């Protein structure tokens, strides 16, 4: 199973449930993820795929196409290769303490990794600028 290393905690929903859908999962801290969702929605309203919020770990997980983990290198994030295991794209939350921020069926099948990479970079810059003003 491939992953990009980071200090972002792993999430229980990557291995919690069986699935028939192949996808990878990019996990980021909640604050950066929420900014990225806003950026994605402003740029191209339908550019965001399903997004999970894991309140217990303070993360958001973006569903991305399978194979993304092999080349994912965005600092502050982790991309987990699920090989179709561990994530069901159904409206019910996949694990306790988590919920869909952008549920399946209300979004694209997956977020384009290149678009997500740009949104996460922009979100990180916005957060850094906001924090430096305090």
Q: Mind explaining what this structure looks like?
A:
There is one protein chain. With 134 residues, the protein is an alpha+beta fold. It has one domain. It is built from two helices and five strands, in the order βαββββα. The chain has helices at 30-43, 113-132; strands spanning 24-29, 51-54, 59-64, 78-81, 98-102. A five-stranded antiparallel sheet has the order 4-1-3-2-5. α1 (30-43) crosses α2. The protein is globular, with a radius of gyration of 14 Å. Mean pLDDT is 78; it is low at 1-20.
How is this fold's topology laid out?
Layout: E1 24-29, H1 30-43, E2 51-54, E3 59-64, E4 78-81, E5 98-102, H2 113-132
Antiparallel strand pairs: 1-3, 1-4, 2-3, 2-5
Helix pairs in contact: 1-2
Structure summary:
The protein is built from 2 helices and 5 strands.
């Amino acid at each position: 199973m491939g992953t990009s290393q980071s200090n972002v905690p792993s999430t229980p929903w990557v291995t919690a449930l069986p699935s028939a859908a192949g996808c990878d999962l990019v996990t980021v801290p909640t604050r950066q993820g929420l900014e990225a969702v806003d950026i994605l929605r402003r740029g191209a309203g339908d550019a965001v795929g399903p997004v999970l919020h894991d309140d217990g770990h303070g993360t958001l997980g973006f569903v991305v196409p399978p194979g993304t983990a092999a080349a994912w290198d965005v600092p502050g994030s982790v991309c987990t290769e699920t090989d179709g295991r561990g994530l069901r794209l159904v409206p019910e939350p996949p694990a306790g303490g988590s919920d869909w921020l952008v549920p399946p069926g209300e979004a694209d099948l997956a977020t384009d990794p290149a678009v997500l990479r740009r949104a996460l970079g922009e979100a990180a810059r916005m957060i850094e600028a906001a924090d430096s003003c305090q």
